Chaperone protein HtpG
Amino acid sequence: MQEKGTISIHTENIFPIIKKFLYSDNEIFLRELVSNAVDAVQKINRLGALGQYSGEVGEGRVDVAFDADKKTITISDNGLGMTAEEIKKYINQIAFSGATEFLEKFKDAKDANELIGKFGLGFYSAFMVAEKVEINTLSYKEGSESARWICDGSTEFEISEGDRTTRGTDIILHVNAESTEFLDQWKLQGILDKYCKFLPVPVFFGTKPDWVEEGEDADGKPERKEIQVENKVNNTAPIWTKSPTELKDEDYLNFYRELYPMSEDPLFWIHLNVDYPFNLTGVLYFPKVKNDMDLQRNKIKLFSRQVFITDEVKDVVPEFLMLLHGVLDSPDIPLNVSRSFLQADSNVKKINSYVTRKVADKLNELFKNDRTAYEEKWSDIGMFVKYGMISEEKFYDKAVDFALITNTKKEHFTLNEYKEKVTPNQTDKDGTVVYIYASDPAKQDSFIQSANKKDYDVMLMDSPIDPHFISKLEQKLDKTSLKRVDADVADKLIDKGETISLVLNDEQKGKVKEIFEKAISSANFQVEVDAMNPSELPVTITMDEFMRRMKDMARMGGGAGMGFYGSLPDRYKVAINGNHKLVDKILKADEVQQAQLAKQAYDLALLSQGMLTGAELTEFVTRSLELI
């Protein structure tokens, strides 16, 4: 049996196009060929189970090997195999049935992933690295003869009698000069680990060392001998393929450590298993989310029938779920071209909504079942939940029941509980409930204590995402505003329509303002003399809530228009407590003492907020020693 022919296409230029545009992502040739081999094994197993193959199915396996001297890579399986006619049908014709359309549509393509698979090019990805490809195969069908197919990357092929004596297929790649990097054990092992680690059929690649006990040494201790054993590269039954009832916590933790060996153990996880209206399995883990969210992303691995596809899953899961880790596997996720790029169609949107709902349900379950344990985890998962509430309206609606507000006393409240707590004492004259928050409790301690003296509760909002979460709460909560605790003096944080009398007359008030303006001597600090409780600090430095928030948003890259606020200089209000005894002392002092006391009181206000540094701090220390 020998036959020569021409591959059924309408142009001579198909292979140069494949080689040119697929070269940028050439390692996926191994994924495609091993996946095809796995499919062949699964099909013979299926035929055997259905009674449509009476022969011995045996243990299915795929073997990958390379020969650096001969410059070959071989992928072998004991699957279905093919007859010569099937080679002509499946290799020569189907792959290029749309060749004319292919060339027209992709002649200007710049991305390899636009090409593979679009017209059955999975097998032909072999030509990304090979100058010649051989198929040596024997079909499972009774009476079949072994067949060999050879193609050198042109449109010509040759079919002849093969020499395979057992059912299955060998794909032999004669590696081209540009791709000799793949003739390396560690390179191939790395690709197999990346794409084939969880394939459902055993995949073997060479050998690896192992140790066995053999006899005893002179002291009677067992002696160990190194031997070589088959190197099985994959776990054929990862936990997401099993029922949750089969698994223990340790199984989930071990799998997480296998995926992310350098990470801390996760907080908890969700096992996904749905078969209608789409197929989806997987395990999503809640990691301990650090403040740098970017480092947490792209940790979800997407598989299709246990073949790794990508860890870019932004179309499959909502943006905020990118902070989760784990695995998703779905044969129903549509993949553009060779399993590489996702299309946002109805199935993807359904999966997106399903995963969001399952995450919300899990969090709600944890909150209801053991609130104390949930509160202990809040510092780790709070940023994740807030991120979800900001970015997904449906998630926000569910999260209202389990999102927590933490105050500076480390007490936790749901949104509804917190509103009930603060409404009686923190409602202004217009009926607006004012939430007071601290973003840096250490620096803002004096403000927090002043607020606490008025029985105001202060929320803790110190994560990178909190400026956006604050804005979200103001949008969603009816007649509610949020103010940072240092946005104003405590008496003015919540305007209840109450007035405090100023003990100074207009002349004294003007004199005090003049003394402090001279002591401060900065256009960025606006001095005001206010009537306050005598027990409050003599000098308080604040920034307007709106301006400070705009500048915070600008620092975080808050979008169009924010850059304007970020470029403005910081401007502060210096509130002088006209009713404090120090003010009276300043008015009675001589001119030198007035300047000295005013500067000292102002520097103390700066110092309390960590705003006094360098030479000014040294000057303050020297002055303090002189005043003692």
